[in-house]
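Re: folding output
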Amino acid sequence: MVEKLDPRQLAEIAAQAAASKLATDVVAIDVHEQTIITDIFVICSADNPRQARAIMNEIDHACHDAGADPTTIEGNDEFRWVLMELPGVIVHIFLAEEREYYGLERLWNDCPRIELPDLEEAAQAEQARVAVQEPPQDAASLIVGLD
């Protein structure tokens, strides 16, 4: 049986998963004293919808592996703002312009930030994994019999 994670542990898992897919500006905000909907917000940015989808999938897999599947995932039709509801944690994955527009950090500015573990290591591991992948071949070498 999997041990039940507290929201802080789950927020760290989500933040590390996001960082492993090169999410930027990953922050965690303790909102438990201000709202009853959740304990922690994890907020991160993606460069484009494809990366937002990859971040969402990685968080989903990491949390599933930890025994805490998301109960709700919203916004995964256009991937401009994806919201993932986990036990005690809501993860927001934004495209940069959406994050600036909605300004969740400004809205919850009076709530304390949660210190996250070093996320740089997760990002570097992903960059190293991508760097060692086989380089793409040119189109001519993929077509048999062009010699």
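--- second protein (sequence, then structure) ---
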Amino acid sequence: MSDHLRIEQRGAVRILTIDRPESKNAMHGPLRTALCAAMAGADRDDEVRAVVLTAVDPVFSAGVDFKQLDLIPGSTGSPLEINPASAIRAIRKPVICAVNGACVSGALEVALSCSFVIASERARFADTHAMLGVVPTWGLTALLPRAIGIRAARQMSVTGAFIDADVALRLGLVNHVVPHEELLSFTLELADRIPTTTVVGEMLGLYARGEDMSLAGALAAEISHSLGRSYDLDAFTAAGSATAARQRGTV
């Protein structure tokens, strides 16, 4: 692991906190390696229902630390070699990104790769790849337009301008904006609402497959996935009653 990634377990939720404030939480090689390992470890751990990814204040992350691309022995200096965004997309459990401050370029790609995003009121988002003269390699040009639409994505990438949390919410980049001091508690409460059933992973997989399909193809994939599956009626009824009670706030 890395000195710059804190790992904490709260119940069935694993919290990963980027802790490199002296460098604006920029992701150098050791941190990227630790993030990839931590995601793979959470995926393998049956005690983990969901992962929360956040960072120490005042920023979420400035993205890839291009000043330290040579810290990995034998590295060619390409961020493609150690790609935490890809590691997040590969995990079969929900990953919730709790963005506490500025989230820039590679960090934006990391956030976009998460299952959903919760933003502090202090969060800001930008894609500065073009301004730095580098091309995205962690999925930005595929993921950003899917999140906010092609025209808004083009404008963010070409201008490098920041958008604040409220604009990000309006565009669909984030799911919720909350007071800064409530960011982690709100995110953990949301994570606690995720059920322990294996269906969660299956649904995330179907969503991922459907992104590359037409509507007809995605509908067919969903039907095909469930063909031949049988259900325990008693278990289904009990789960339905428990869910209804929970939604009424009685349990």
